[in-house]
Design brief:
Blueprint: H1 18-29, H2 33-38, H3 47-53, E1 65-73, E2 76-83, H4 89-101, E3 106-110, E4 114-122, H5 127-135, H6 138-146, H7 150-154, E5 158-167, E6 174-182, H8 189-207, E7 210-216, E8 224-231, H9 233-236, H10 242-258, H11 260-280, H12 285-296, E9 306-310, E10 316-323, H13 331-335, H14 337-346, H15 351-374, H16 378-393, H17 399-411, H18 416-430
Antiparallel strand pairs: 1-2, 3-8, 4-6, 4-7, 5-6, 8-10, 9-10
Helix pairs in contact: 4-15, 6-8, 10-11, 10-15, 11-12, 11-15, 15-16, 16-17, 17-18
Length: 431
């Protein structure tokens, strides 16, 4: 039972050790011994490191780490680490990659490694003239920005350009300055935020306005990752034939590109693969997801991040383009031992290469989802894996898990109450 007089106002909670915090939380929530024991395990992540990565740590939540096989990216065979809790995600990438492997796999490219920082100024009397005053000071702006991060300059990055927009808003015109910065192998949030902070007083002085927000944009449309693949008809065809599968996939893509209700689920499927690799490598899943969905709406309506069409030979051609702000240095990517191991598995040596591989994974994920939707339906493959989870939730262990899951799929009813009944019958028959 929880304490009815409990309070979340806990003085000095952040100063306590993880063990002390866990004891407080257990008492607050009335956790039993089993629940409390599940929280402090941190796997190969040292508890002291976890306590430095985020605040008020009491443990960690372990996510399964799977490996996608069959991936060939720009002529190189790769194994792809994917951190996800969702059934069928890893298998979907494996299957999609296998079906285009002999046709060359995935080819990728990148628009660059540029990030944008925004500085918002309001109350500017003459915003259009002020815009020109800022643009006239490009050299001064470059000096201020490059002075913030000499290490970035050492590795070939730094300030590249400045853009200024007069933005109409409900509160009147805003003057928004964009700093375009090459962040190289860093995701770049800290670097561009520091530059925006440093430049903000100068913007206020030059414009006569009041500066408020000064922060990066996660719509990283100067950092687009692209991937393309061709799926031959003889590889994707089954009982209904390659042409029918191809046309079904293209029709599903057309649906997503025309309807935001469908596009939201379509793009979520893409991000199943993208976010799994982003997370496995210690990068920021929320930043990548926000950028991808914003990019999908860049033309004024929300649509598909992928494109599918027919080649001159009649095969299925797929492509993807989305912002991909990931890095190899800084944050959890550099500190987390699992992230470091995953980067070694991938064998990537630049943020650009990592972004391109992730785009290929997103395209593979989308192909598999659309193929399933256009043929057997999404549930058949997904439920075969989901049934194992349901079997475990029902109490199955060891070989019981596969047996219960198989019966659930055969019956076409994957529910916990059904799994429990099957398990009870199975155990009774074994006695």
């Amino acid at each position: 039972m929880t304490n009815p007089h409990r309070s979340s106002r806990i003085s000095g909670f952040h100063k306590k050790s993880p063990v002390e915090r866990l004891a407080i939380v257990s008492e607050f929530a009335g956790l039993d011994a089993a629940a409390a024991a599940a929280l402090p395990g941190t796997g190969n992540l040292d508890i002291d490191l976890a306590d430095r990565l985020v605040e008020n740590v009491i443990g960690s939540m372990n996510i399964p780490l799977g490996i996608a096989t069959n991936m060939k990216v720009d002529g190189e065979d790769l194994l792809i680490p994917m951190a996800t809790e969702e059934s069928s995600v890893v298998a979907a990438v494996c299957n999609a990659a296998r079906q285009c492997y002999d046709a060359g796999g995935f080819t990728t490219s990148m628009s660059g490694t540029l990030m944008i920082a925004q500085i918002q100024a309001i109350g500017v009397a003459d915003p259009h003239a002020a815009r020109l005053r800022i643009l006239d000071r490009r050299d001064e702006i470059k000096a201020v920005c490059d002075g913030c991060d000499p290490i970035l300059l050492k590795f070939g990055g730094g300030f590249r350009d400045v853009e200024v927009r007069v933005l109409d808003s409900q509160g009147g015109p805003m003057l928004v300055t964009h700093l375009i910065v090459d962040t190289r192998d860093a995701m770049g949030a800290n670097a561009v935020n520091s530059m925006a902070e440093k430049l903000a007083p100068h913007i206020a002085e030059w414009t006569g306005g009041r500066v408020y927000l000064r922060i990066l944009s996660n719509l990283a449309d100067r950092r687009l990752a692209r991937a393309h693949a061709v799926w031959p008809l003889d590889q994707i065809g089954g009982q209904i034939g390659g042409e029918a599968v191809r046309d079904g996939i293209i029709s599903a893509y057309h649906f997503a590109d025309a309807d935001p209700y469908r596009a939201a689920t379509h793009n979520k499927g893409i991000m199943n693969g993208v976010s799994a690799v982003v997370l496995a490598t210690g990068n920021d899943t929320r930043a990548v997801e926000a950028g991808a969905h914003a990019y999908a709406a860049r033309n004024g309506r929300y649509g598909s991040l992928t494109r599918f069409e027919v080649t001159a030979d009649g095969h299925l051609s797929g492509s993807i383009e989305l912002p991909m702000a990931v890095g190899l240095i800084g944050g959890a990517t550099k500190a987390h031992p699992t992230a470091q191991a995953c980067l070694r598995i991938l064998g990537v040596t630049s943020a650009e290469r990592l972004a391109r591989v992730i785009a290929a994974v997103g395209l593979a994920q989308n192909f598999s989802a659309l193929k399933a939707l256009a043929t057997t339906g999404i549930q058949k493959g997904h439920m075969a894996l989901h049934a194992q989870n349901i079997a475990m939730m029902a109490g199955a262990v060891g070989e019981e898990i596969d047996r219960v899951a198989r019966i659930l799929v055969e019956r076409g009813t994957v529910r916990q109450d059904v799994a429990q009944a099957i398990l009870e019958d199975m155990r009774a028959a074994a006695q």
